[in-house]
Amino acid sequence: MKKRNEPKAYLYLAPAILIAAVFWWFPAAKGLVESFLKVNQAGKVLGFAGFSNYMMLFRDKAFLNSLSVTLRFILLFVPVNTLITLLAASLTRRPSRFSSIPEYIFFSPVAISLSAYSLLMKEIFRGTASVANRLLGTGSGWITEPAGAMATLVILGVFLDFGLDYMILMCAFRSIDRNVIEAARMDGAGGWRLFFQIELPLIRETVSATVFLALKDAILISAPIMILTEGGPYRSTETLMFYYYIEAFKSGNRAVQNALSSLVLIVATVAMAVFGSLRRRAR
Amino acid sequence: MANKRFIAFALVVVAMASVFAAGTAEKANRTVTIWHSAQGSNTAAFEEIIDDFNSTIGKENGIVVEAIYQGKANDVLTKVNAASGTGTLPDIAMMDATAATDMNHSEHLVTVNELGIDTSDILECGISSYTSEKGLLALPFNASALLYYYNRTLYDSLGVEPPRTLDEMAEVVSRTGTAEISGFAGVPATFELSTFIGAQKGCSYMLNNRNGHDGAATEVLFGKEGTFKAFLEKWKAIYDTGRYNAISSGVTAEFTAGRTAAMLASSSNLASVIANVAGGFEVGVAKVPMVDEQATGGTVISGGALFAFRNDDEVRMVLEYLVSADVQAKWSEQTGYVPVNTKAYSTDAYRSFLERNPLYRVAMDSLLDSDAGLANVWVPSAYSIYYSFQSTIVDVLNGKDIDTAVDEMVAIVDGAIAAYASQN
Question: Domain B145-301+380-423 - what CATH class?
Answer without folding.
Answer: alpha beta
